[in-house]
Design brief:
The complex is a heterodimer.
Chain A lengths: L12 H8 L3 H7 L1 H19 L3 H27 L6 H14 L7 H23 L4 H21 L1 H4 L5 E2 L5 H7 L6 H24 L2 H11 L1 H6 L4 H27 L1 E2 L6 H14 L4 H17 L7 H15 L4 H13 L1
Chain B lengths: L1 H13 L10 E7 L6 H20 L8 E7 L4 H13 L5 E4 L3 H14 L3 E3 L14 E3 L4 H14 L4 E7 L2 H17 L2 E8 L7 H8 L6 E4 L5 H11 L6 E3 L6 H7 L7 E4 L15 H15 L5 H20 L4 H9 L4 E2 L4 E2 L15 E6 L2 E4 L3
Parallel strand pairs in B: 1-2, 1-3, 3-4, 4-5, 6-7, 6-8, 8-9
Antiparallel strand pairs in B: 10-13, 11-12, 13-14
Helix pairs in contact in B: 2-11, 3-4, 5-6, 8-9, 11-12
The chains are: A mainly alpha, B alpha/beta.
Organism (chain B): Limimaricola variabilis
Pfam families (chain B): Peripla_BP_6 (PF13458)
Family (chain B): Belongs to the leucine-binding protein family.
Chain lengths: 344, 380
């Protein structure tokens, strides 16, 4: 029972996965990863079809960036059952590397790659000792890690601009599209880039779930001890999942830095970590579609709720409470179950 | 009032195709009304709401009603940028006020150049107007000017060796850096440089260190919130006699309540908002300061803060520019704004130029001292 120390509703992952990786036939034909990619691509294009202005593209961009970051949480929380409250730290490492690089003559794409590598490396080094913990203890350890990163970003003003943040110079997605002769507004360009990267991220995560490594992760989710007795190197597998999820967060952070053109230490703050986990839990931590739904709701809803600005937090809180009580595994698995039950 | 205004603005989201009718002048604002910077955004939002109401009751601008659309960005740059996009694209505003914090301001700033919409920030940092961005203005004076003003007063008293004790929060850290930067040019020497965490409850060790420094002649405390009040009380407990300076960050009556009698005798640079009745009859700021305080107290039953004053000035500068432009074209408004000369506000007297989008000089700050539990101007 050692591996089941997590507090988050641990779904029977197998059902959940079967429910949304897509239905049997299409999956068998083109593979679950490609299938997921195509579904995401259609959703990205669908958004672009109905968006009337840059403002919608802007919100759409944030949805895709959040989806990407939350997909990392899905790998960690949904697949392995590990809770991290410090992922905003990795997010911020990706963001700040992208911002700092150009100041030292490193081109944006290289700085971005460097930041992602750094986040992965840090996750590898730190992961070894702290992944021995589970449940609350792991949550607190990762929380501490996130706080440390946030403190460095706030205090080292010579490098990071301190609490006021720093400007991100360099790449604009618009220029990428200019290369192929397309003229887009920058809000639209970032939407396509973020949507594309999120689709790739989702496809990779789905493929991972269906690979031997992914099956090992899910075995660990059910029981550490049982997994070990099957010959799975539990420490190694956990560490791998931690690194992968850190990389997802860092890529999302780098994208956000470039799309916004300005970052502050709050991107690495505790609240942002909580927000990411919340999105995953709300949508359903066991699948990438849960990541998308959670990110969509928690990004778009505050925009709709500006009418009730004073009640925004109350409404969000109520949604969370209702989801946790009535749909313990999150929205997507709940709806998928309903659907399956109706069919059978 | 705010909710009604916002409701009008958000209708566009519910009905994708319906473009809002533009029968009036729309002004947008994105402020930190809640969250860690609410002490900035709340009085700013209240001030703007009050001013719009007042303006419309008096017939609006050139006969046209003004609609104010306010969003709460909670000082989150990410949200601020989204709201700025929304104000420009969906609400079709002619100008935007806001960004209570530097981060929010800087995240929004590039949009205004893209869309050619004038923007007046209410945040402090120098980076907002240096280098000058064509469409970005700001009303608060900078911490750099506060340092210069304090140092000018110190040298005027024939002193030069200064010890700094700074908070490590955003405000304290930024001001400390600016003070170090302007020290030499201002003719003072920083001989001690201590810091404290924003929530520390005892700064006696740092003060003892500074007091023990050779030749120390004055102490300056760049900081914000409760920290400076603790420093002030520790200062009195240690019985230090050196001239003691606080920053504009604590220039409020709330600070006097926190620090109590220990504050007696200290000096700080502040806007004339703290001394409405002690301004000279011919002071150009006397009228706006007294008007603002009277109107705010009547509507909200509390004293306005320095931060609300920034919003007051931003709004009046904007209205003045729209009136002079005689048009609601954002570019013409911007041009009129940049041509502003000698506009007396509550923070200072503004004169914008193409090279200066803050428009204040050191005369905007008054050095005040605490005497008999109240503020008194120091004769220069």
């Amino acid at each position: 029972m050692a591996g089941q120390g997590t507090t988050v509703a641990t779904a029977p992952v197998e059902t959940a996965r079967r429910a949304h990786v897509g239905n049997g036939k299409a999956r068998a034909l083109i593979g679950p990863g490609l299938c997921t990619f195509l579904i995401f691509a259609v959703l990205v294009a669908l958004g672009a079809l109905i968006f009337p202005s840059s403002y919608f593209y802007r919100v759409g961009t944030l949805v895709w960036i959040n989806t990407l970051a939350v997909t990392g949480i899905v790998v960690l929380l949904g697949y392995v059952g590990l809770v991290s409250l410090g992922h905003a730290g990795f997010f911020a490492i990706g963001a700040y590397a992208t911002a700092i690089g150009p100041n030292y003559g490193i081109p944006s794409p290289l700085a971005m790659a460097g930041g992602v590598a750094l986040a992965g490396l840090l996750a590898l080094v730190v992961g070894r000792p702290i992944l021995r913990l589970s449940g609350y203890y792991l949550a607190i350890a990762t929380l501490g890690l996130g706080m440390l990163i946030w403190m460095v970003l706030s205090k080292e003003a010579w490098l990071t601009g301190g609490p006021d943040g720093m400007t991100v110079s360099g790449m604009n997605a618009r220029n990428l599209f200019k290369l192929v002769g397309l003229k887009l507004k920058s809000a639209e360009a970032w939407y396509w880039v973020a949507g594309f990267v999120a689709a790739i991220g989702a496809a990779i995560a789905v493929n991972l779930a269906n690979s031997p490594s992914g099956r090992a992760l899910r075995a660990i989710h059910d029981s550490d001890v049982a997994a070990r007795s099957l010959g799975i190197d539990v420490a190694r597998a956990k560490s791998r999942a931690f690194v992968i999820s850190a990389i997802y967060a860092a890529v999302a952070g780098a994208l956000l830095a470039l799309a916004n053109g300005y970052i502050t230490p709050e991107t690495g703050g505790f609240m942002h970590s909580v927000e990411m986990v919340t999105m995953a839990v709300l949508g359903g931590a066991a699948s990438v579609f849960g990541a998308l739904v959670g990110a969509l709701i928690l990004t778009a809803l505050p925009q709709l709720l500006t009418v009730f600005a004073d009640y925004e937090h109350m409404v969000l809180g109520a949604i969370m409470v209702v989801t946790m009580i009535a749909m313990r595994r999150g929205l997507v698995p709940f709806i998928a179950d309903l659907w399956n039950r109706r069919k059978s | 009032m705010r909710r009604q205004a916002v409701a009008a603005g958000v209708s566009a989201l519910a009905i994708l195709t319906a473009a809002p009718a533009i029968a009036e002048i729309r002004i947008g604002a994105s402020l930190a009304i809640t969250g860690p910077a609410a002490f900035l955004g709340d009085p700013e939002a209240k001030t703007l709401e009050m001013l719009v109401e007042e303006l419309n009751a008096n017939g609006g601008i050139n006969g046209e009603e003004v609609e104010l659309i306010v969003y709460d960005d909670g000082a989150d740059p990410n949200k601020a940028r989204t709201f700025a996009t929304r104000l420009i694209e969906e609400d079709e505003v002619v100008a935007v006020i806001g960004g209570s914090s530097t981060g929010a301001t800087m995240a929004m700033a590039p949009l205004f150049a893209d869309y050619e919409i004038p923007f007046i920030s209410l945040a402090g940092a120098v980076v907002i107007v240096d280098p000058v961005q064509e469409f970005v203005f700001k009303t608060p004076h900078t911490d750099r000017m506060a340092c210069e003003k304090i140092f000018a007063d110190i040298t005027a008293r024939g002193l030069s060796k200064v010890g700094l004790i700074s908070g490590t929060d955003g405000f304290g850290a930024s001001m400390r850096e600016q003070c170090l930067d302007v020290a030499e040019a201002s003719g003072v020497e920083i001989v001690a440089d201590e810091s404290y965490g924003a929530t520390d409850s005892d700064m006696t060790p740092q003060l003892t260190n500074i007091a023990a420094t050779d030749g120390i002649e004055a102490i300056v405390n760049p900081g914000f919130g409760q920290g400076p009040a603790v420093v002030t009380r520790n200062y009195a407990q240690l019985g230090l006699e050196l001239p003691f300076y606080q920053s504009h960050g604590v220039a409020s009556d709330a600070f006097l309540d926190l620090a109590g009698e220990a504050a007696e005798g200290l000096r700080l640079p502040a806007t004339p908002l703290l001394i409405p009745d002690q301004l000279a009859e011919d002071d150009p700021q006397r009228q706006p300061v007294q008007d603002y305080i009277a109107a705010y107290e009547e509507k909200y039953g509390e004293k306005p803060s320095t931060f609300g004053g920034y919003a007051y000035d931003a709004f009046h500068l904007l209205v003045d520019a729209i009136e002079r432009a005689g048009s609601t074209d954002p570019v013409e408004i911007r041009d009129a704004l940049e041509a502003t000369e000698g506009h007396a506000g509550v923070t200072g007297v503004y004169s914008f130029t193409p090279e200066d989008h803050m428009g204040l000089d050191l005369s905007a700050f008054r050095i005040l001292k605490v005497a008999d539990g109240g503020w008194k101007p120091v004769e220069e």
